[in-house]
């Protein structure tokens, strides 16, 4: 499987890349593309021709699948993409976070906040107590401070006294 990522560039850079990759590449002034990253692996520089643009490696809020076709009929999955390289104009500020909040398309705007389940609020003391009681039950022991509420239908409901 190939390693893939999404490259998001400003519209002016996109036109130059299209011209460079098109059949008229010999007429293009931009003869080279390069992408260099610093030691942190998250920030870098995108070079097209003699011009340099700041770039950042960002995680996407969810995995995106990429496909290709050989016959314009059947699609073949080629990769799961989880990161995006965001190329900015020279004056734009760099993102402060490592995760891009908005995904690739407008429906994915603020996707983590709107679409994914939030982490449950768990009391660590209660979790440790239940874990200890389960270990005791599995080893043949009993549970302390336990009230049995209902034993019908072979279901045992336990209520902890906190």
TrEMBL record:
<dbReference type="InterPro" id="IPR037817">
    <property type="entry name" value="TAF7"/>
</dbReference>
<dbReference type="GO" id="GO:0016251">
    <property type="term" value="F:RNA polymerase II general transcription initiation factor activity"/>
</dbReference>
<comment type="similarity">
    <text>Belongs to the TAF7 family.</text>
</comment>
<keyword id="KW-0539">Nucleus</keyword>
<dbReference type="GO" id="GO:0051123">
    <property type="term" value="P:RNA polymerase II preinitiation complex assembly"/>
</dbReference>
<keyword id="KW-0805">Transcription regulation</keyword>
<feature type="domain" description="TAFII55 protein conserved region">
    <location>
        <begin position="1"/>
        <end position="145"/>
    </location>
</feature>
<dbReference type="InterPro" id="IPR006751">
    <property type="entry name" value="TAFII55_prot_cons_reg"/>
</dbReference>
<keyword id="KW-0804">Transcription</keyword>
<dbReference type="GO" id="GO:0005669">
    <property type="term" value="C:transcription factor TFIID complex"/>
</dbReference>
<protein>
    <submittedName>
        <fullName>TBP-associated factor 7</fullName>
    </submittedName>
</protein>
<dbReference type="Pfam" id="PF04658">
    <property type="entry name" value="TAFII55_N"/>
</dbReference>
